[in-house]
């Protein structure tokens, strides 16, 4: 089978795998409960939703969600709900974690807790987003747009390895990885020089079987006509599978512009943890949350 090219390919692939159990932290919003319901009905996961049982029942009733499809753990308050959900994953009672209505900073603190969290000692968390854009022929896999604010060169090495792992789970055997900067020339600023180093590491197979290019601009990474116009003759010709962004600002802006202006759908999760941790925006759609659940289950 060839590479996945649509987000809908992810749940289709998961249905052939052993079913995973997901803990939902503070699952008191309609989009989360609707996505969980859909994922359970489509045999993607089993689920336990942690939060106020009364609030979950109220939101579910208003959103046409059948709460008999999943377990509810009655915990009052955002922080206790996050702690309880993380504990389920840490204890092995669940295979993956999902953020509900929780604030991202609180959710991440629960994951990063040194005593009771999900980060291995010396590890690095990274956020991976998988986009499907209208009229674009492949999925776009991007990191890091939400967790590491200003990654060092060594951070980018680890981010690349984690992101390539996700790409391979999407059946992209030899991912084309674009190390992004503002120009295809090596310039004096750090992102340009680090992209050149990372591309050199790719040539030496330090990331395994990938095709890497950098520094490279976003247009040459994604659009063949930009390469033709600019006369760019690099290893990537507008056909990148993976985009490694220089910092959180550039990645986060691209993420939101693609979703809001470009009409793209996205699946997203945190990697580098002992289990996949789904991290979407509280404002993301039910579809986005559903595809993120499937992505987590595929990598659990």
Automatic annotation (TrEMBL):
Keywords: Acyltransferase, Transferase. It comes from the Bacteria. Gene3D superfamilies: Isopropylmalate Dehydrogenase (3.40.718.10). Transmembrane segments: none annotated. GO terms for molecular function: acyltransferase activity. InterPro entries: P_Ac_Bu_trans, Phos_Acetyltrans/Butyryltrans, PTA_PTB. The keyword Iron does not apply. Residues 19-77, 83-296 form the Phosphate acetyl/butaryl transferase domain. Belongs to the phosphate acetyltransferase and butyryltransferase family. PANTHER family: PHOSPHATE ACETYLTRANSFERASE (PTHR43356). This is Phosphate butyryltransferase. It comes from Candidatus Cryosericum septentrionale. The lineage of its organism: Bacteria, Pseudomonadati, Caldisericota/Cryosericota group, Candidatus Cryosericota, Candidatus Cryosericia.
């Amino acid at each position: 089978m060839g590479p996945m090219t649509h987000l809908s390919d992810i749940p289709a692939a998961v249905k052939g795998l052993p079913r995973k159990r997901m803990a939902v932290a503070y699952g008191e919003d309609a989009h989360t409960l609707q996505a969980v319901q859909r994922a359970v009905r489509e045999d993607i996961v089993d689920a336990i939703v942690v939060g106020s049982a009364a609030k979950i029942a109220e939101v579910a009733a208003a959103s046409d969600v059948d709460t008999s499809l999943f377990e509810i753990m009655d915990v009052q308050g955002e922080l206790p709900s996050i702690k309880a959900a993380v504990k389920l994953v840490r204890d092995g009672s669940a295979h993956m974690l999902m953020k509900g209505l929780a604030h991202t900073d609180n959710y991440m603190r629960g994951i990063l807790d040194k005593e009771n969290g999900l980060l291995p000692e010396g590890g690095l968390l990274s956020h991976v987003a998988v986009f499907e854009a209208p009229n674009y022929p492949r999925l776009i896999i991007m990191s890091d747009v939400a967790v590491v604010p200003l990654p060092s060169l060594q951070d980018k090495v680890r981010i690349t390895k984690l992101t390539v792992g996700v790409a391979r789970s999407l059946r992209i055997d030899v991912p084309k990885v674009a190390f992004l900067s503002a120009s295809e020339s090596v310039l004096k600023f750090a992102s340009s020089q680090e992209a050149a180093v990372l591309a050199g590491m790719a040539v030496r197979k330090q990331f395994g079987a990938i095709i890497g290019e950098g520094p490279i601009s976003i247009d040459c990474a994604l659009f063949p006509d930009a390469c033709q116009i600019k006369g760019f003759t690099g290893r990537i010709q507008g056909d990148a599978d993976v985009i490694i962004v220089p910092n959180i600002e550039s990645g986060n802006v691209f993420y939101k512009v693609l979703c809001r202006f470009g009409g793209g759908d996205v699946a997203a999760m945190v990697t580098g943890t002992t289990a996949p941790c789904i991290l979407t925006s509280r404002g993301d759609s039910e579809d986005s949350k559903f595809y993120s659940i499937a992505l987590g289950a595929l990598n659990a």
